[in-house]
Request: fold
Amino acid sequence: MKKNHMFSKLLFLSCSALLFAACGAADSATDSSTASADGALPDKVIIATLEMPNDEGIAKAEGYFEDEMGVPIEIVQFESGKAINQAMVSGAVDFGLTGSGSAVLGIASGIPIEMIWIHETLGSVESLVAKNELNATSLEDLKGKNIGVPFASTAHYSLLRAITASGFEETDFVLIDLQPSDIFAAWQRGDIDAAYIWEPTLSELLTDGNIVLHSGDVAEMGYMTANVEIVHSEFGEAYPEIVAKYIAAVDKAVTLYREDPDQAISIIAEQLNITEESAKLQMEGQNWISAEEQLDAANLGTSDAVGAMAATMSDMGQFYLDQGNITASPSEADFAEGINTTYIEAYLESKE
Reply:
């Protein structure tokens, strides 16, 4: 991973017209910030977020970003990683929380972003659940059955990779493209026998179903999925110290969760307006990663040694290419260029 992450050398720029339609938008966060860079702080930092029970949720609720960055923070709620990618195209936001799949699509489409943090790797919070009446304990038990899953999602990716890793063919199952709300309705009607889905729909299905496998199991097969943080490349180049302070804020949240899980669960429950029981269930179905662990070979790696995330992104890129979501997929080396660990390294160095 190089320390200068500019994507002008990428020859696979296949960004859709939809993504670039926003490029002519009014003054962007990045444009207005970088105008006075040269050692100065930005007037404001804009963080795009999704409602998730993770470290960023705690950092938002506890004011860690303001404390660490020392500048005004605006947090903007989005509904999807796709929408955050579009905001990054226009430069309307500086940071963005998104699924690893959306980050892969963004980098493959030539959007000027860098992956800087893994919020959490997915485990039982995203699972393949089958109806109790099937007594299914493995994929073998679901051959020929109808399985609902949102196509082109991390759940779809995990399901297909689990199928092939287990020695089966996709055609051994009947996969049906359904969104979460549609999955619940189809489950109730009896249209599907199983579903690969995430919370909160997952918990709704578990009232009459059991988990056959989950994304943590698939990660052990070599196919990790995660929620990650991206930063606009121009903002990162202009304000590397601010990006390092973002890292400090979320790492502080990880530490809180590990040292006082009850308090962290309470914060998330209030933040997301859910019960503490639900918050605990969802948080325990994920793996939160500290700053030191981010640099492990199994995760992002370091600026000198590429970690497993680059290979995971490359495989996911091939998945999206096969699904027709992109017209070309970058190489593993190109995806490694889209990961920048120098901000984590700077933060850890400042702690010494």
